[in-house]
Amino acid sequence: MTTGDRQAYLEAKIDTLKQELLALGDLRPGTLSEQYNVCGKAGCACKADPPRKHGPYYQVSFTWQGRSHTQFVRQENVATTRQQLRNYEKLRALVEAWVAAGLELAALRFGTAPVRPRVRRKVVRRATTRATSQ
Ligand SMILES: [Zn+2]
Fold it and tell me: Residue 16 falls within a domain, yes or no?
């Protein structure tokens, strides 16, 4: 593949990413979790053996502008919320792919060195402790 071919490929890829971004629906960041609670009422089933706790209650936790937030989600909004969270993950993946293509394209156009993507290595924990040198 020539440099020109690669540039054309990257340009087409970025166009596709833009189209996918346009097609994204509602989104929000975060992780959905489910909770079951115990109340303070005497003799309530939530304290029986086995307990029948109250819930599920749903909440979305996320960090935005450096601060963490938790929002409760009504049962009837859970399915929509899951879709919003998936759309957000898709947004992030599309942006990440655009950035990668943009970096490579810039390097090709300017004839500069490409930025190597970070290789995620698996962390291997050693059973032996390393000798420290003085
Ligand atoms: Zn209870």
Answer: yes
